[in-house]
Amino acid sequence: MNLLDQEMSLFFRTYRRLPLEIDRGEGMYLIARDGSRYLDMFAGIAVNALGHSHPGILDAIRIQSSKFLHLSNYFVQSPQNDLARMLIDASGFRRMFFANSGTEATEGAMKIARKWGSSRSKNVLIAFTNSFHGRTYGALSLMDRVSYREGYGPFLDHCLTIPFNDAEALRKAVTPETAALFIEGIQGEGGIRTANREFIEEINRLQRQFGFLLVADEIQCGLGRTGRMFAFEHFGMRPDLVLLAKPLGGGLPLGAILGGEAVEDVLEPGAHGSTFGGNALACAAGCVVVRELTQGNLLANVQKMGERLRDELLRMKAAHPSTIRDVRGIGLMLGVELFDEARPFVDALRERKVLVNSTDRTVLRIVPALTIEETHVAEFIRALEDVLATR
Ligand code: PLP
């Protein structure tokens, strides 16, 4: 029996698996059990920022695994401290917390916001339509998409989801009871949609007026994906809390919450925690990722390759105006919106040994490793051109 047939009889039906059996990854490529090489343009959904089998990450894991794997958070641990130091230095934030995943980072931030608001008569959490913050109950309570929520209610009280990029709706929704606003500067699962300037300016103005916390969910768009360390740097916003995950652990599970001055004393010992959060291997690998981002020329590469990809995609849009509706995004977080379903394009690209992912039904999501080079861009564009030519 092959792996796919086995999986059908083993698991709850939560995932739509690709018809591929991967043996190993090498840089920008995944190699299947039958030896075929696939150009990986979605990098484990924006996780493998340094590509597959990065030697620095493998070394860090090997060295740390020869010391200890897990101690529990009763112990201070140098991989945690090292990574925290780098993140705090890179962000200018004051305190942080390590979780295991994105959704746990969201949950932690929701708790911090509610606790912060509890002495200020503020308990309403606001988020935006089409956003994705995770799949646990707190995160789902901030989201509006039927496909994630239908049949799973009731959700948490005092959580509102209001239209994204709608300054008027925001003005109506924010009150003195608003404890926090959760925003993805670039919505990832929601189809690579970017917050607009007017909307951000209104958020900043309302924050000054009402004094709520601003939480930037940078789980997908943060840590170099846009060509800057944090996506909020593009938008002129200064969040009180930033959520990180996906690429943070270099392929191992790791999430984080960074907090500014307003929240630095909110949590007390015992109030929040995690058995595995800040796992030593994940933090050791994370140090390699963050070092590459802060000391190497990775951000410059993202800017250059992002521009290159974007130019090529815009050229294709001009050549195929009845197939491609829009090209959008920043850096290496790009979306190609089609007039029709994106899945047949994903399948056709896979037949040509290129892996991309689709989101929001009609959008091809392009989130390759940040280490992508010109030759990979050219290989991807050739395959996409070939698919478009057969339409
Ligand atoms: N927030 C954003 C913006 C995400 O893209 C995701 C995952 O796709 C999450 C939260 C949830 O992260 P996780 O799947 O690690 O729980």
Descriptive account of the structure:
- By secondary structure, this protein is of the alpha/beta class.
- The protein has a domain at 56-295: 3-Layer(aba) Sandwich (Aspartate Aminotransferase, domain 2), CATH 3.40.640.
- The chain is 38% helix and 19% strand.
- The strands form four sheets. It has a seven-stranded mixed β-sheet with strand order 4-12-11-10-7-5-6, with helices on both faces. A four-stranded mixed β-sheet has the order 1-2-3-15. The protein has a four-stranded antiparallel β-sheet with strand order 13-14-17-16, with helices on one face.
- Strand 1 (22-26) and strand 2 form a beta hairpin.
- Helix 3 packs antiparallel against helix 10 and helix 4 (78-91) packs parallel to helix 10.
- The longest helix is centred in the last third of the chain and has 22 residues, at 298-319.
- The model has no long low-confidence stretch (mean pLDDT 97).
- The structure holds pyridoxal-5'-phosphate (PLP).
- Pyridoxal-5'-phosphate binds at residues 101-103, 106, 132-134, 184, 188-189, 217, 219-220, 245.
- The site of pyridoxal-5'-phosphate has 14 residues, from helix 5.
Observed structural traits:
391 residues; alpha/beta; Aspartate Aminotransferase, domain 2; seven-stranded mixed β-sheet; four-stranded mixed β-sheet; globular; binds pyridoxal-5'-phosphate
